[in-house]
Design brief:
The chain has helices spanning 11-25, 32-48, 58-75, 83-86, 91-98, 107-118, 126-144, 157-161, 180-192, 198-211. It is mainly α. The protein has three domains: 11-104; 126-176, no CATH class; 178-215, no CATH class.
């Protein structure tokens, strides 16, 4: 509050502030021409971030952002304009080429990066901790698919059966030690159902038939 700054915001928070809260916050505070320009910029972002966009209105949005940038150059100093402000001109063209913006969000990647950061146990070797934890989780999930009594990690079953949200998410990996017999059964089952191993199984059958022609 002393510096009057907002810190610790992710990209989704910034989008919500810009599209929903900023037009309300600057109401009756800034001069009318500046307020209207910023409000038009917020409305532009709200339009391009919709899940449904009318292709016939893309040219209107392109003309709108050009006018908005010209007005920003009239009201703001040159230090305000950097490469990020210039990229606004290309957003509508990207929608024409690649489709709606929500299909190319960075939000899932940011959420997964948070999961990877939670894997870090050794602050001096963060990459190694992420790799080791990720490999352990993938191995347990893969082996659990071939075990009838195993309880796979991930989303709890009741959450997707009842279509309800559970706030207590599973963030760790539970490794259970199996005896050698169950381990060999799982290992054999995986080998017999892996495409990469099939050529070796066929070659082994050929050798067995050649060595035992009467059987």
């Amino acid at each position: 509050m002393q510096d009057l700054k907002l810190i610790g915001l992710n990209s989704h928070d910034c989008h919500i502030l810009m599209q929903q809260l900023l037009p309300v916050a600057i109401h009756e505070i800034l001069p009318k021409n500046v307020r209207q320009t910023i409000t038009r910029l917020c409305a532009f972002f709200s339009s391009i971030c919709n899940k449904f966009i009318d292709t016939l209105k893309l040219d209107e949005l392109q003309a709108e952002i050009v006018i908005i940038l010209c007005q920003l150059e009239m009201f703001f100093p040159p230090s305000f304009f950097d490469i990020m402000v210039h990229l606004l001109v290309h957003l509508v063209r990207e929608i024409k080429f690649y489709g709606p913006v929500y299909l190319r969000w960075m939000y899932p990647i940011e959420r997964y990066m948070k999961i990877l950061k939670g894997y870090v146990e050794n602050q001096y070797r963060p990459e190694a901790s992420m790799i080791e934890r990720y490999i352990a989780e993938e191995s347990v999930e893969f082996c659990s698919d071939y075990m009838a009594k195993a309880k796979p990690i991930g989303v709890p079953q009741r959450s997707w059966l009842n279509r309800c949200y559970i706030s207590n998410s599973i963030s760790g990996v539970s490794v259970v030690t199996k005896d050698r017999e169950e381990f060999m059964q799982a290992h054999l089952y995986i080998l017999n159902n892996t495409d990469e191993v099939m050529p070796y199984l066929f070659a082994d059958k050929v050798i067995v038939k050649e060595n035992n022609p009467r059987q």
